[in-house]
């Protein structure tokens, strides 16, 4: 269920400007209202896209976190991390 919730969070980063700003400035507070496992919350806050990918989070959706510099991610860092995943 956490993967689905994180996909929804990524979509909200794209669509909701206030949520986007909160995710950039204080992601822990912005995520407080979401039910996530401790591992999922930790991975999301750390910008650990490798772990999130393994949990089933959509890679394209995670790109929104990088695009809007949420959870310590930016596009070059996201690209480096996502390319490290063996396919």
Topology:
Elements: H1 2-15, H2 17-25, H3 27-30, H4 38-46, H5 49-54, H6 59-67, H7 75-83
Helix pairs in contact: 1-2, 1-6, 6-7
Describe this structure in words.
This protein is mainly α. It has one domain. The protein is 69% helix and 0% strand. It is built from 7 helices and no strands. α1 crosses α2 and α6 runs antiparallel to α7. The radius of gyration is 12 Å and the shape is globular. The model has no long low-confidence stretch (mean pLDDT 96).
The amount of beta strand, in percent, is: under 5%
Report on the biggest sheet.
Answer: none
- Helix fraction, binned, reads 55-70%
Low-confidence runs (pLDDT<50, min 5 residues)? none
- Quaternary organisation of the protein chains: single chain
Rg value: 12 Å
SSE string, helices as H and strands as E? HHHHHHH
Query: Roughly how many Å apart are the termini?
Result: 23 Å
**How many strands in all?**
0
Summed up, the domain count is: 1
DSSP helical segment count: 7
The pLDDT mean sits at 96
Structural class: mainly alpha
Q: Characterize the overall form.
A: globular
Tell me briefly what this model is.
With 87 residues, the protein is mostly helical.
Characteristics:
mainly alpha; 0% strand
């Amino acid at each position: 269920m956490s993967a689905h919730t994180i996909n929804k969070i990524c979509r909200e980063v794209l669509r909701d400007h206030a949520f986007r700003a909160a995710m950039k400035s204080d992601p822990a507070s912005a995520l407080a209202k979401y039910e996530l496992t401790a591992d999922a919350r930790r991975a999301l806050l750390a910008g650990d896209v490798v772990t999130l990918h393994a949990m089933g989070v959509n890679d394209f959706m995670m790109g929104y976190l990088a695009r809007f510099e949420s959870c310590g991610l930016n596009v070059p860092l996201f690209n480096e991390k996502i390319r490290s995943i063996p396919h």
